[in-house]
Specification:
Blueprint (H helix, E strand, L loop, with lengths): L5 E9 L2 E10 L10 H17 L10 E2 L26 H11 L3 H20 L16 H14 L8 E5 L7 H8 L5 H17 L15 E4 L8 E5 H9 L6 H17 L8 H15 L8 H13 L10 H16 L10 H15 L9 H5 L2
Parallel strand pairs: 4-6
Antiparallel strand pairs: 1-2, 3-5, 5-6
Length: 380
Amino acid sequence: MPNRTGFLGRTLMAAGTVAALALATAVPAAAAAPSTVEQDVAQLYQDVIDLYNGLPASALRDVDRLIESPIPKIGPRAQAAAGPIPGCTEGSLLTYANNLASQLTPLEGQALDALSGLSQLYVQGVATDKTPQVFGTDGQYTPRATATIDKLRAFWDIESWNVQLVAWKGTDLGSQAKMAQTFGLGLAPAKVKDAAALATKVLYEVPVLQGGRNPLITLNAFSAPAGSLGGKRVALGDGLLDTVNLLGFDDVSVESVVGHEYGHQVDFAHDNHPRNESSEMGPDAYGGYFVAHAKGFGWDARTQQEVTYLDASIGDCFHSHGTPDQRKAAGAWGEKQATSQANPNRIVPSATMIEKFQKEYPKLMPPAADQPATVAAARG
């Protein structure tokens, strides 16, 4: 931007004498050139890295996600060193999400990565169910989500009063106040205000983000235990709910996702933290038991089958959360536990359900010869 010089000249007349006086000539310092979108995104990405690095070491531990985000969260996507499972095809939901992600430019991917990680941290460490929660981009899933969590709290025999159900909304990124609270969790105080303003700026200057409504920003869900950054909570991403419905699972979408994530709370309550695929397949089984049980939703056989196909849609091929077939089998096993009970109204104690599934789990896995030894070290 060129320098601009301002001149102010006045002619004063006094006592008949004309004096031409050149008064103040101001030469301002050169104005800084406005930042480019690329510079803004790079700076925001660094701010988010610094934020995560500034968090307490225990802040993000034990956070189990329904799926792995198709865009890495501040770092490379973790995959087993052994590579993909031969002959495996990822589930339809993961395939859809990865196809969306593949259409992003590197700049758009970096912006989405930073903002998705930032919004997840807001939901995990700042958001609270003390304020009204709105589930879905237009609130369309709110009644179903709240009804499901209420039923789950009454169904499982774990401490449930302090399990929060919170909405993960990309549009929260447009609030500088909320972003300032989030950056305040770990960023240097002097940088918080500028970082929050920059997050909102990037949200609107990168069109593909759709002001927070791009489903990739919140195409996830997670469950956090007591002692984590914000305490016990189940978080539902708008992008995940919208995508699950788009793929044809509208009849069971909200209930299945909430049931699965609450299943993690069942594991947390019994200090059950498996470092293998049963960490996700177990909650599939508990969720299947819940939706099929007479005191849960009591869904019929057709609807139960739809739930198992939703489980399959989030299967992966990297010895991470279970393949589509394994996820489907885990959900079906849980449903069978409910429908085959002699007393349909009896609810198996959660500790017993965990024990029963851990005994069943090896039967749902491929033969040991199909799982390279390197896999064990890659799990986590």
